[in-house]
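Long-time lurker, first post. I've been practising inverse folding by hand and with some scripts of my own, and I keep getting stuck on stretches where the structure tokens seem ambiguous. Below is the full token string for one chain I'm working on. Before anyone asks, I'm not after the true native sequence, just a reasonable design that respects the backbone. If someone could post their per-position residues I'd love to compare against what I wrote down in my notebook.
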């Protein structure tokens, strides 16, 4: 891999264990002392490093994966699963003796939204010193994922995260950041997220959260109201262009060059800064001002045979980043992003459904049917 890696995908990684539900109505049996029969587990890597990084690899983008695991059974399983995708894909991983690797139990019963039982493990001790300048050398983009689930990276209003992103930019790399929503009752949930974002976003060229986690961090009262109004349909059902624009404008005002908001099966929204000077700061000319300045867009998702939505957001991010690296303009980049996301949900694990870039492009060109535009 070495200097051939275009993208350094760093941050959160874990082992996902997903028991498939084999009986309809199983959700009713998930009660104390209940017994639910499930099938053989789907065991796969999870987290941003694995989901976005491996999707980039499957799309043909040279990538270096940088996360931390322990020297335990789950850590060895994570490294083995990475090597199955490519012998060198575990080379950038850090093995920390005596620490517990991160894992997630994914509960996805039919008819209910997913639920996660998560141990952050070694992700809590991952820090900027784990990503040396030598590991960044030769790359075009540093993508960092899930700092809300990584204690060192979120402490002191994201000081360590800002340090790492700033160092990458000083080395000439573009930077991108994806988030995750913490438990509101946890230490991470009580953080001053506006202060953290205001500190970090001037060093983030492409910010790619979903709308719900963004509102969790920026406007909790609004999020609570939308959850109440959306009911079973969820927050995304209550989103309109005015809300998306206002949310993106706040994030751009805090310093991001480009904001991409994931909206679940409602699509993908994008808004870029009109500040050409800020776009000029993006490494490698990844966001040329003539193409991106002030651009705004919204695209619907493609119709897919959904097996599991685990990792769909992460693979959508991979599709978008791959499109940027190929120099695609905004509308085409968004289209390819939601196409990759749609491919991913057609398999039980996050990345197994993602084919090569040209296969995705051919499926889109063949007239792949889209879901109706669901955002007013």
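-- Answer (accepted) --
I ran through it position by position. Result:
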């Amino acid at each position: 891999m070495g200097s051939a890696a275009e993208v350094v995908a760093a941050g959160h990684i874990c082992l996902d264990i997903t028991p498939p539900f084999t009986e309809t109505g199983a959700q009713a049996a998930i009660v104390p002392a209940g017994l639910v029969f499930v099938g053989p587990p789907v065991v796969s890597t999870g987290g941003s490093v694995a989901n976005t990084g491996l999707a980039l690899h499957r799309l043909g983008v040279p990538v270096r994966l940088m996360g931390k695991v322990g020297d335990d059974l789950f850590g060895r399983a994570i490294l083995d699963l990475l090597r199955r995708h490519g012998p060198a894909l575990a080379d950038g991983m850090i093995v920390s003796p005596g620490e517990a690797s991160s894992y997630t139990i994914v509960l996805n019963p039919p008819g209910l939204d997913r639920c996660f039982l998560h141990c952050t493990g070694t992700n809590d001790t991952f820090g900027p010193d784990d990503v040396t300048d030598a590991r960044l050398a030769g790359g075009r983009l540093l993508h960092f994922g899930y700092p809300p689930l990584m204690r060192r990276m979120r402490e002191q209003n994201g000081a360590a995260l800002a340090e790492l992103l700033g160092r990458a930019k000083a080395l000439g790399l573009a930077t991108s950041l994806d988030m995750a929503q913490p438990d509101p009752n946890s230490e991470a949930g009580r953080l001053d997220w506006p202060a953290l974002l205001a500190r970090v976003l001037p060093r983030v060229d492409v910010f790619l959260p979903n709308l719900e986690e963004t509102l969790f961090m920026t406007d909790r009262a609004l999020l609570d109201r939308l959850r109440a109004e959306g009911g079973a349909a969820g927050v995304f059902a209550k989103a309109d262009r005015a809300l998306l624009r206002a949310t993106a404008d706040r994030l751009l005002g805090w310093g991001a060059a480009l904001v991409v908001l994931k909206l679940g099966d409602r699509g993908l929204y994008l808004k870029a800064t009109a500040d050409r000077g800020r776009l000029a700061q993006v490494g490698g000319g990844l966001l040329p001002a003539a193409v991106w300045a002030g651009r705004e867009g919204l695209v619907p998702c493609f119709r897919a045979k959904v097996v599991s939505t685990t990792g769909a957001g992460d693979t959508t991010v991979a599709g978008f980043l791959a499109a940027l690296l190929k120099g695609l303009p905004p509308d085409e980049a968004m289209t390819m992003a939601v196409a990759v996301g749609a491919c991913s949900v057609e398999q039980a694990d996050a990345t197994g459904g993602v084919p090569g870039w040209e296969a995705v492009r051919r499926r889109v060109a063949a007239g792949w049917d889209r879901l109706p535009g669901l955002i007013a």
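A couple of notes from the structure itself: The chain has a mean pLDDT of 93. Residues 66 and 129 are 12 Å apart (CA to CA). Happy to go over any region you disagree with.
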